[in-house]
Amino acid sequence: MATPPFDAIIIGAGSVGNPTAYFLAREGLRTLVLDELSASGQGQNKAAIGGVRATHSDPTKITLCRQSLEIFSEWKASTGTDIGWKKGGYCFPAFTDKVEATLKGLLATQKKFHLNIDWLDAEALKKVVPGINENGLLGGTYSPDDGQVSPLLAAESSTREAIRLGAEYRYRAPVESLVMKGNTVVGVRTDREEFRATTVINTSGVNASGICRMAGLDVPILPDSHEGGISAPVKQFLDPLVVDLRPGPEGKTINFYFGQDANGQIIFCYTPKVPISGTNRNSTYEFMPIVAARLVEVIPRLKNLMIRRVWRGLYPMTPDGSPIVGKAPSVEGFVLGVGMCGQGFMLGPGVGKNLASLVARGAPSIDREVFDLLSPARDLYAGKKEALK
Ligand SMILES: Cc1cc2nc3c(=O)[nH]c(=O)nc-3n(C[C@H](O)[C@H](O)[C@H](O)COP(=O)(O)OP(=O)(O)OC[C@H]3O[C@@H](n4cnc5c(N)ncnc54)[C@H](O)[C@@H]3O)c2cc1C
Fold first, then answer.
1. Are residues 149 and 41 in contact, defined by beta-carbon separation less than 8 angstroms?
2. Pairing relation of β-strands 276-277 and 307-317?
3. What are phi and psi of 2, to 5 degrees?
4. For residue 2, is pLDDT > 80?
5. Arithmetic mean of pLDDT, 12-19
6. Ligand 1, pocket-test mutation among 11, 15, 309, most atoms within 8 A of CB
7. This prediction's pTM
8. Residue 106 CB coordination number (10 Å)
């Protein structure tokens, strides 16, 4: 017997798909989530280091990440599940005049949005980042309301909560085509089954272009790879995630960021100077030596840290560096939550809440004008990349 139609089918149980399922189920919609992998959060979600901040320079990201922060920070109280939330803030130290000028320039915009962020002088900053290298330290920005979450715990918990509210999940269910009726998406076909729904939501991360193509849409999302790593736990000493905006002396990095998670582990990443396009996820030989030098440069006493593992994951990149969120242009019944670039984990709950509201009530939960800045119908090649990645 054929499965009765769902209200919504979500393709991808990742950083965006799981919170979307949770909020759709909360709206009372009959929701199905399909993922080609064997569990939730096993795509790029688990590659994230879990940084969550509202202190961006783009109004939509600020608004959506504010919602994410609210959801993450209240998650334990509302569900009883610990997802590793740590409200330690973000700190951007300045060691050069150029970085100081950039950070102070952004402060004006961030203040306009009433973000809790301020410039600290070097003395105050040393208290926020104990053990920071004082050599050349000019001060920096600190936003105490930002924080960190465990991406794996968040994926697991949001899935469990979505299921508790009635959502269904199928794993090892790769979507191979969309069922179309004219220019309306009416369902999906996996390698084994066909499912029908009023709305199909594409949250398939780095595969999102391929899924869009199945509906005849050209939505450019290209993967580029980034490496991360984590140490063995050490005694808690560091509250914020620290972002060093200096290019590395090795000439291969444009920044470096790290923090200490709720378990005491130091977790770290950098942005390569030359983007590494493609889907190769093998760790490189150069990542760890570069990271080790940068970490010890910022906090010299971390020189004896024991590293546990490294990994390489993919950012689903868009031409203008901003996500693509909303109803697909010229195709009915198809909604996109794609192109999250390097911030899909922190955007996930905010995007999910808005997509659920869009599908269930016909409007996002944030101001329409702000939401529409991420519209799939925008000119993806016209936009300016955000100042702080
Ligand atoms: C090293 C590193 C560090 C990062 N740190 C952070 C951070 O601190 N904060 C932050 O916000 N972001 C961070 N990110 C970025 C973040 O990981 C991504 O932006 C985010 O996970 C993308 O979310 P998504 O839901 O679009 O994709 P995913 O989480 O990958 O979810 C997509 C899902 O779709 C499934 N799928 C794909 N194709 C199909 C198909 N045909 N059928 C069925 N299922 C399908 C996949 O299996 C996957 O589970 C980091 C990334 C890396 C690599």
1. no
2. unpaired
3. -70, 145
4. no
5. 98
6. 15
7. 0.97
8. 19
In 3D space, the residue among 198, 179, 202, 180 whose CA is nearest the CA of residue 189 turns out to be 179
- Between CA 290 and CA 253 the distance in angstroms is 8
Mean pLDDT within 145-164: 98
CB distance 56 to ligand 1 below 6 Å: no
Decide: 128 and 142 in contact? Cβ < 8 Å: yes
Bridge partners, residue 287, by sequence: none
pLDDT category of residue 57 using cuts at 50, 70 and 90? confident
- What is the pLDDT averaged over residues 125-135? 98
Both tokens of residue 260? 């200490």
Distance 365 CA to ligand 1 centre (A): 23
What average pLDDT does the segment 55-76 reach? 96
Atom of ligand 1 nearest to the CA of 17: 25
Of the pLDDT bands very low, low, confident and very high (cuts 50, 70, 90), residue 1 is very low
CA–centroid distance, residue 45 to ligand 1 (Å): 4
Nearest to 332 by CA among 205, 182, 207: 182
**312 - beta bridge partners?**
227
Write down the number of H helices and E strands in the chain: 9, 19
